[in-house]
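Subject: for your reference before the review

Hello V.,

The reviewers asked for a structural picture of the protein, and I figured it would be easier to keep everything in one thread rather than splitting it across files. Below is the amino acid sequence we used in the manuscript, unchanged from the supplementary table.
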Amino acid sequence: MTAKNTPIVIDIDSNYCEKLFMEDCRFDGVRGPAIRISNEENASVQINLRHVVCRNVPVLTANIANGRQVQGPTSIYEARSLTAGLQIDDWSADPTYSTTKDLQPLNSFPAASTSDIPAFPSMDTWANLLQLGAKGDGETDDTKAIQDAIDKYPVIYVPQGWYRISNTLRLKPNTVIIGLNPVATQLQLADNTQAFGGFGSPVPLLETSRGGNNIVSGIGLSTGASNPRAVGCKWMAGGGSYLNDVKFIGGHGGLNRPGTPRTTIYQQQDKDWDSQYWSLWITDGGGGTFKDIWSASTYCTSGAYISNTSTPGRIYAMSVEHHVRNEIRFNKVSNWKVYALQLEEESRESSECQPMEIQDCHNMTFANLYMFRVIRVIKPYPYSVRLWGCSAMEFLNVHNFSQIKYTTTSALYDVNSNTEVRPWEFARLMIPAGTPTNPPTPGAPAAAASSPAGSSPSSPASSSRRAPSPTAAATSTSASPGCAASTAGRRPPEASPSSPTIPGSRCHSPATRKTTCSSSSSTFQNKAGWSMAARKLFQSPDAAGTSFSGWGNSGFATWVYSIDPGNPDETITLLPRSPMGTVAHPFKVLYPAHRWRDFHDFNTVIVNRPGWCYVAPDGATVIPDVYDLARSTALTAAYPGQPFYATDEYDKRTVRLSVSPEGYLSGLTHFAERGEFVSIPDKAGNVYIADGQLYRYDPQGRQHLLIRTPERPTGMTLSPDQKMMYVTGHHGFYEVALP
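And here is what came back from the structure prediction:
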């Protein structure tokens, strides 16, 4: 990208976020700041520049929130690197907000960088496949016609058609194949094609030459369902090769020709899911440029598998989705850059999918990495990236998310160091060269983490061990200090000698929650002997503004029940829906502790005045009827006249509001640029915020303590004397002696 003679290049609006990665760009004559950043101390704001050359650009970046600027050292200079946002320097480092930069003066303004995208051959060299004898009718076996064309012509144009294949198509070193587009132009295997059946090594539908300069563009590759040895494409071409605009078709990721019947695959599991090899296999020294790839065949074990190559490779915009086992794997790979990789897990097939695995890889960069679980997923997964034996790896602009509460628990997990990276959003993680690659000794304690700047050291937990399994723990009354509930493969707790790792903590066995209110399910089905007539559905006016609602979660009602903890079996009572104001001056009002508003209307919706509510039997506690009751995991008490804290999940922020005598919220101010499921104040005005770990902020919004927890906190509450904190996670219930 070149920007010339302009007042600004990138302008990020105040209160909005951006994941900006720019490399090999040129800024020439930019009068104002080249990049205006909204708030570099918010995890969702991620700015990374690499090798950006500047001429007459006096101010490279300016931060709206704090006024800080990065100024150019001379009239001509190179930003070899600049990172603004949440940074993690290595596995043992605490995440910190910072701006780091390497700006070097230049004597002259360099020429533009060479493009990674090779030019297509002139159209007058293209041989039309249909004119060479192929039919493309989806019925005729076109294998011989296509292979003969490959053997005779260097450049082949594949017009619209579905071309049935019965054996591997092998490209010559300089073969170029150009299709119309990957939906209209497909190479297909029929089910039970003999060459791709039985048990044995992978058999590719399309195979490049080793070290060649192949170009393949605009093609759909379908390996069918019942072809267990199939690989969509085996790519061994060299660093100058190019795979572009290719769709790997099948299963939940299938695309049908307009007018053909669609399968009902989404309604049930398919016996052929996860039965084939990989859709895209880059191996044996394969490299080059891979751009605009969509790999979503549920029949394949992985959408992409890159192995055994040190040939430079570059991925630009690849989406890998809907697999049962892995979305993408890297094994013994070095010298690769991966830009704009998206991983997406669906509910039916991908609930247990490990999105990315990286093994024995070095000198790799991932930039603008998106990892996503769809709204229909109903349980969390431990981590999005699992890696081991890796070094000299850089992750830039990582976005690990879901519109529901079941995001993967941690973004990355390193097997060798037994370390998880908990932030879901961050600008940079560096795994240095020379990182140890030996696996951890079974039973050895995890590596100690350093104490964060400004935090108070405390005594380490006296011991650290796994808690009993949920079955065994059901009859247990206590456990040794420092224990953590965990499942196989999860990171055990750490006993750090220098950081406050829940001093004196204990893990309690799972117990039935004493429920005072609950939200009903979002889907209704008529059952025998049960009628919907007595249940009226109310559409909350604030349902709009969130993808959770937009994708089918609006046709439901929220019902609130009261339960007497002393007699729970016989006291479950449905509370009537009443006008807000039924209790003129409530003692407390229970609002959702966190809200996901990805249409960016959180600041407006949270101060809406609800029209309806539910009144507890005590006549003094009110629960306003708002849409986000259906999605939030906790309610937080708002007391009239006292500050109230809530989390804007989408913007990763905790806000403070005032509570009126009638229980309405107003006067929103930004309190801290952290937040997930819950935040609670203590009597001194400090605020505890759960965001991967526990953070304590003073009344002015300054962090002054980090408390490490054995697992990601999902809820917390203070004891009456405020000396203890009770914390829930996905696998355990903990008490924390507060320092």
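For the response letter, the relevant points are probably these. The first strand starts at residue 2 and ends at 6. Confidence is low (pLDDT under 50) at residues 261-267, 439-534.

Happy to draft the paragraph if you're swamped.

O.
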